[in-house]
Amino acid sequence: MIAALYSDPHFGHYNENSGGIIKLADRPFASIDEMDAAFIKKYNELVSPRETVLWLGDAFICSVERAKEIMSELNGHKQLIIGNHDRSTTAMAKLGFELVIERECFMFLHGRKCRLTHYPYAGAPYGRQQREDDRYADRRPPRIKGEVLIHGHSHAKRRIFQNMIHVGVDAWDFRPALIEEVEDLIRRFL
Questions:
Q1: Domain range holding 80?
Q2: I need a surface site. Which of 10, 31, 58, 90 has the fewest CB within 10 A?
């Protein structure tokens, strides 16, 4: 049973030229080490060692050694749907993900069929710059009437747009979104 959803932490993502994810997503941290430590703490406060978290992509942008170190510090069982910054399914499994999914999966939450994937629909007008972003168009899911799309990728602060729920850390105070919280959003807004 999945206890929480988690997306786009970008652990270790620092770049001297661009500043990395802290600058790109306007995250309030002085360094990548401070960010990683805060994310590990928030994750472990919500996830017990016996719970399972489904990650919706873009886990690490760092060395394999650093990624393994971070994985060992995080509680629970970890499953992953590949995002645009993730390595191959084999490489991600070697980091410690118990299940690695190439593109998407489905589950029912609050009686609604939900598609879980890294990417929002093409043309979703929200994200870092609150504008449409159609990069990776070939990986974007099709719109299906009545379906709830649960995704990451956008780094938006907004959790809901149309029939989409964004579970990226930037929308959830840099922590996992508990399944109960996602179900509550579906109940109240979708």
A1: 2-189
A2: 90
